[in-house]
Design the sequence.
């Protein structure tokens, strides 16, 4: 097996404090388990696995596992227990005691090394448990995949994959080492990774491991007669202090207390007393004081601080504090919050309020919660949520103007810590923490918030330096009010038949195992998507089935389904799994699916479910790809699946075309002036030309009647990755299609990106079908909900794996489904045969013609689709001979049968499906 690994770019440091939490282990829970699974014991101070060598090029040599910790730590009774992770094993195959005590190799830390006599297994996966003297599992690590322990101390626990592998051609003498990542900027656990293919350092502290230095002693007390500077003088009028590198002393009130070790901000904010504030509106009256891990003041104290004026990550601060003194303990009345409101007049407007206590009296709406789970932050805006510009105005200047206005109408509201994946997540509704039952939805409001305006990051470049409104004290929160309530049911769109479009966010039956490329068609194997473990899959499936049941649609177009084949070319069909799940809930035969097998070369496809009790497929599905029209680039757009259906109650025929166009991301690395698929700066993003050509090809293809039903009632649904006024949607509008969801509600949305709301999911009705659409609307169960409430279990504490999940329809995906009601009113036809029956029953073939009549007198053309013999024995070969579209020959057998003839009647661009019966009479008509 060939596997790849990435060498470490450069050695860096690792803080012991971070190492304590480097391997949080999520306990695996079965949905049907009746007993609690075991859990991890608390980690010992600084003891963790720091280096592993389990495989190399040629014969294995020097296999070992190293454990790092504070010198002198007694490891009596501690063991390393090696696990075989194969599906048939998952058991301990070797147990080794740890040498003790940990020697001092410098700085009060050291390592011990275990060299198993018979070596370390190198399967995919295998693992190791670090077990303390009391039998508690401190770490359960694996390589080349994860597994659940079946025996030993890690029984019932899910291993944590270290994320790198070591195998030929890994050189002899190399190892995997735990070290600080090249992108690290702090000492949190997320700043550290396992790195592969470095020369081993067994028996010595890794070059990449260095303990974080202890905090400096508290600064001495300042002299009472120090010369004071005003905070406004330290801040100056610009974004850089004019007193850079100068030692200054300020006396001000503590307005924000974030003291303590990381993930605290490691300091506090002070603000000049109101009586000493200057009259310059451009200078801030607040400043951050960095004191490391020390605690020198409390909220409301009046303090005198001497330190060096400097900039850190764009924020003015006092650092290298040489002395401090509390000169008063009741200064809260000396500083009044400064009134601030959105939108801001300009991009630099907030600089004057950096580090200041501010109050926003207005009601602000939650416009983004994408990073609520990771960083504990939301983005708010005034006057409701922010629109995607091209959802409401034309691309180009108008869209860019809206974007510029949006940029001035947003503010991050953050918690007080710079950590990731915090437990609890503070910002749920009503001032209480987030949970599956206490969500925070887009459009919920924050009114009258008071806090400190900091210019900081969230502890990681994924949420970089920006102005943030933070509560004044660690652990405090803001009160968000529930304005956008969860729907209690799918929207009522009327109609005698309903159609839904639903991007289900990678529903895969094949688990997404790290580095595995086993999904996709036989000749196009790619990485899988979707659930990583069986537990995640069960949670994903439960939520998706609940959403589909609530939608209750007769036809459902699904987007982002697994598009895989096994080694023999047989499809791995997620729709079959969903049909089985729906039938378990609703009864056998409630749903079926349109069979297409693997479609295209991508690892995802589109597909169609339908309710056979309400609609019947007419003919076979049609596929649009590059072979049909080269304008449709199926290397980027997923092939279109179109299927015609007939509503059983009325016989009316309509065609549903399900789509998934190329996204706006992964831009080409070309000159925008030469490549129309590059971002043109008009608000439509990348690949707009590609999507536009796909729309043109699709519009023309549907006009050619690809399913052969002769009916112009077409419904284009799916994820078109375009907003309402962008070029691809204009292609359909220019062809007469109507955006029926937008027609119902001009503010409709199905998706949020970068805090801006619009619809990427569509219901576009052809000119003949649009008048027959009763209504269309999104079912707002996903986009409004925080992503951390989804089915995933990674980056969550064991408690959050439970508290943030509910087996309901909310946050099934990142897209809202769209539901469309149809009141079909096309042809009104009656079907008949001549003759109306077959007599005598003499076993001879009789000529039969099928006719369709309309009240208007116009006679539609007829196409015979299928003939079925209903009776004691059914039919045999030669009993049915179709002559042409409207005539056939039927055998008049004496067994009392009837023939059921499925017919498609067509005229004037409309079609109607129906069934006519012709009995075989064994007695003359009128006689009993």
Sequence:
């Amino acid at each position: 097996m060939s596997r790849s690994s990435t060498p470490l770019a450069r050695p860096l440091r690792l803080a012991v404090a971070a190492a304590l939490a480097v391997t949080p282990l999520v306990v695996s829970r079965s949905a049907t388990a009746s007993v609690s699974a075991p859990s991890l014991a608390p980690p010992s101070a600084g003891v963790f696995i720091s280096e592993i060598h389990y495989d190399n090029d040629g014969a294995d040599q020097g296999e070992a596992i190293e454990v790092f910790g504070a010198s002198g730590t007694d490891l009596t009774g501690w063991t390393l227990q090696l696990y075989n992770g194969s599906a048939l094993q998952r058991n301990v195959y070797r147990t080794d005691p740890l040498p003790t005590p940990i020697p001092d190799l410098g700085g009060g830390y050291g390592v011990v090394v275990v060299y198993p006599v018979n070596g370390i297994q190198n399967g995919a996966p295998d693992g190791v448990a670090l077990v303390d003297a009391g039998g508690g599992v401190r770490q359960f690590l694996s390589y080349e995949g994860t597994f659940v322990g079946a025996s030993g101390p890690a029984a019932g626990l899910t291993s944590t994959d270290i994320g790198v592998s070591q195998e030929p051609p890994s050189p002899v003498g190399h190892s995997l080492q735990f070290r600080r990542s090249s992108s690290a900027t702090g000492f949190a656990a997320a700043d550290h990774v396992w790195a592969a293919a470095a020369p081993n350092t067994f028996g010595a502290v890794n070059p990449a491991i260095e303990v974080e230095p202890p905090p400096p002693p508290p600064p001495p007390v300042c002299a009472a007669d120090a010369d004071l500077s005003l905070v406004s003088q330290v801040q100056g009028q610009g974004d850089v202090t004019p007193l850079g590198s100068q030692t200054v002393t300020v006396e001000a009130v503590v307005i924000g207390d974030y003291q303590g070790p990381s993930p605290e901000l490691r300091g506090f904010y002070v603000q000049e007393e109101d009586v000493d504030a200057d009259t310059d509106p451009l200078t801030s009256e607040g400043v951050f004081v960095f004191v490391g891990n020390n605690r020198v003041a409390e909220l409301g104290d009046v303090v005198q601080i001497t330190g060096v004026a400097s900039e850190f990550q764009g924020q003015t601060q006092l650092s290298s504090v040489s002395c401090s003194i509390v000169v008063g303990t009741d200064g809260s009345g000396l500083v009044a919050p400064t009134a601030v409101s959105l939108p801001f007049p300009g991009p630099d407007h907030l600089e004057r309020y950096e580090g200041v206590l501010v109050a926003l009296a207005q009601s602000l709406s939650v416009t983004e919660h994408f990073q609520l789970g990771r960083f504990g932050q939301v983005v708010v805006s005034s006057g409701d949520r922010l629109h995607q510009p091209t959802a409401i105005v034309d691309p180009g200047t108008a869209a860019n103007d809206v974007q510029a206005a949006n940029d001035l109408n947003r503010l991050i509201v953050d918690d007080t810590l710079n950590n990731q994946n915090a437990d609890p997540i503070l910002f749920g509704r009503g001032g209480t923490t987030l949970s599956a039952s206490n969500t925070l939805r887009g459009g919920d409001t924050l009114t009258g918030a008071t806090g400190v305006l900091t210019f900081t990051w969230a502890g990681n470049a994924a949420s970089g330096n920006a102005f943030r409104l933070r509560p004044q004290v660690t652990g405090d929160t803001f009160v968000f009010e529930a304005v956008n309530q969860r729907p209690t049911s799918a929207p009522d769109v009327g109609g005698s038949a309903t159609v839904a479009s639903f991007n289900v966010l990678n529903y895969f039956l094949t688990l997404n195992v790290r580095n595995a490329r086993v999904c996709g068609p036989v000749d196009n194997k790619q990485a899988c998507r979707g659930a990583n473990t069986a537990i995640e899959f069960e949670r994903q499936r439960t939520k998706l089935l609940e959403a589909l049941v609530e939608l209750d649609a007769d036809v459902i177009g699904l987007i982002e389904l697994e598009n895989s084949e096994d080694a023999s070319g047989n499809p791995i069909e997620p729709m079959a799994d969903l049909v089985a799940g729906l039938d378990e809930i609703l009864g056998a035969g409630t749903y079926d699916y349109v069979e297409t097998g693997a479609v295209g070369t991508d690892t995802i496809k589109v597909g169609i479910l339908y309710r056979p009790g309400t609609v019947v497929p007419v003919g076979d599905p049609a596929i649009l790809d590059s072979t049909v029209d080269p304008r449709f680039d199926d290397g980027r757009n997923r092939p279109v699946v179109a299927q015609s259906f007939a509503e059983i109650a009325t016989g009316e025929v309509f065609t549903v075309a399900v789509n998934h166009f190329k996204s706006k991301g992964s831009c080409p690395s070309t000159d925008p002036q030469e490549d129309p698929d590059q971002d043109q700066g008009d608000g439509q993003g990348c690949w707009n030309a590609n999507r536009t050509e796909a729309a043109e090809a699709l519009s023309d293809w549907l006009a050619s009647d690809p399913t052969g039903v002769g009916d112009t009632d077409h419904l284009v649904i799916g994820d078109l990755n375009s907003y309402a006024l962008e070029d691809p949607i204009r292609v359909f509008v220019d062809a007469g299609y109507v955006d029926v969801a937008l027609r119902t509600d001009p503010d409709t949305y199905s998706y949020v990106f970068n805090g801006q709301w619009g619809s990427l999911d569509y219901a576009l009705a052809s000119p003949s079908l649009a008048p027959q659409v009763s209504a269309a609307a999104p079912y707002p169960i996903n986009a409004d909900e925080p992503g951390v409430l989804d089915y995933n279990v990674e980056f969550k504490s064991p408690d959050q794996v439970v508290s943030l999940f509910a087996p309901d329809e909310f946050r099934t995906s990142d897209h809202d489904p769209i539901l469309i009601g149809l009141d079909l009113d096309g042809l009104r036809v009656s079907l008949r045969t001549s003759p109306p029956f077959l007599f005598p029953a003499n076993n001879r073939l009789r000529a039969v013609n099928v006719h369709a009549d309309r009240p208007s007198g116009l006679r539609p053309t007829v196409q015979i689709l299928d003939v079925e013999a209903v009776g004691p024995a059914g039919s045999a070969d030669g009993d049915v001979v179709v002559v042409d579209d409207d005539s056939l020959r039927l055998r008049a057998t004496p067994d009392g049968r009837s023939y059921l003839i499925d017919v498609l009647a067509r005229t004037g661009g409309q079609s109607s499906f129906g069934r006519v019966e012709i009995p075989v009479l064994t007695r003359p008509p009128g006689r009993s």
